[in-house]
Amino acid sequence: MSPLRQSLRKARRALTPQQQLAHARAATTHLLRSPWLQRPLHLAVFLSTDGELDTRPLIEALWQRGGHTLYLPVLEHSLPHAMLFAPYTPQTRLTPNRYGIPEPAEGPRVPGCRLDAALVPLVGFDATGNRLGMGGGFYDRAFSCRLRRGENGIRQKWGRPRLIGWAHALQQVERLPAQPWDVPLDAVVTERGILTFRH
Ligand SMILES: Nc1ncnc2c1ncn2[C@@H]1O[C@H](COP(=O)(O)OP(=O)(O)OP(=O)(O)O)[C@@H](O)[C@H]1O
Ligand SMILES: [Mg+2]
Predict the structure, then answer these.
(1) Domain spans of the chain, in order of start
(2) Which of 93, 96, 172, 184 ranks highest by number of CB atoms within 10 Å?
(3) d(CA 18, CA 53)
C-alpha cells in the first residue's frame, strides 16, 4: 500500500470514539441541510470501517425522514472489482462480503450509474475534488459513466449520479495526482461543512 494511503488510514483510526461520534453527527447535520437532499433520491450509502467517518447517524436520520431510497454497495462476483448497489432498509438482511463488510443478502442489484447520488468513502481528497480510495478501483469503475464526455468533448456540467465524498477533515491533502480512470467528486462532506467542486 502507498505510504500516503497508510498514513491517512492511520490518522483516521487514531480518532477517539468521542471525536468519531462528534464528526459523524456534525457531518450528518451539514448534509441533511444541503439542498441536494430536499427531494426524494435513489441514494447509495456505505457502512463505515477502518476509522472512516461513520455513516450510521446519517442512515438512521434518512430512514426516519423517509422519502429517499437508500442502497448499499454489493460486490459483483462475475467480474473482477465490479460493484453494484442493492436497496437498504431497516429490514434488509446483511451478510459479510469477502472483505468482511456487510452487504444486502438479497434484493435487486442496480448499476451505480442509475442512481441519483452516492455517498463515497475515501482515504484522501484534495481541494479540487480528486479522490484517493482504498486502491481497488471499485468506485472508479462503478461510476465511470461520469467520465464520459458530451459530443463537443466537454464533460457534462450536471452529471449524474452526484458523487458526495464523506470523510473527516483531516483526510484532506494538498494535492492528489489524478489518473485517467479516477472519477472526481462533486462535493465532500466533513465535520466542518461541505466543500463543492467544479470540473
Ligand atoms: N473504469 C475502470 N476500468 C478498468 N479499470 C479501472 C477502472 N477504474 C479503475 N481501474 C483500475 O483500478 C485500479 C485501482 O484504481 P485506484 O488506485 O484509482 O483505486 P481507488 O480509487 O483508490 O479505489 P476505489 O475506487 O476502490 O476506492 C487501477 O489499477 C485501475 O487501472
Ligand atoms: Mg481512483
Answers:
(1) 3-196
(2) 184
(3) 12
